[in-house]
Design a protein that fits this description.
single chain; alpha+beta; two-stranded antiparallel sheet; 3 helices; about 35% helix; globular; Dimeric_a/b-barrel
């Protein structure tokens, strides 16, 4: 089953983000998409340990399992540290409860 990008983002926001918010150390997320239907999800954590813990609890595997049918290519995972950031403070929709 393939779905359009806006539907995939809405599913992620409705089904995954509430679970992310329950993970200790979760600090935020960026969901990036392009017109060709590819994208990336960048999650932010208070510490590297919090990110590893969330990945080790099965949370990451559960998310992949839930959304595996909508991926156009196999998902990947990497760990990076923020070396520089300048993020917008206005014009970004606030998360809804």
């Amino acid at each position: 089953m393939r779905i359009d990008t806006s539907t995939a983002v809405r599913l992620y926001e409705d089904e995954v983000v509430p679970e992310l918010r329950r993970q200790p150390g979760y600090a935020g997320v960026l969901v990036l998409a392009n017109p060709e239907g590819t994208g990336a999800v960048v999650t932010f954590w208070d510490t590297a340990e919090a990110a590893e813990t969330a990945g080790g609890t099965g949370f990451y595997a559960e998310v992949l399992e839930k959304f595996t049918t909508i991926f156009r290519s196999p998902p990947g995972r990497g760990r990076y540290e923020v070396a520089f950031a300048e993020l917008p403070t206005a014009g970004v929709p606030a998360p809804h409860p």
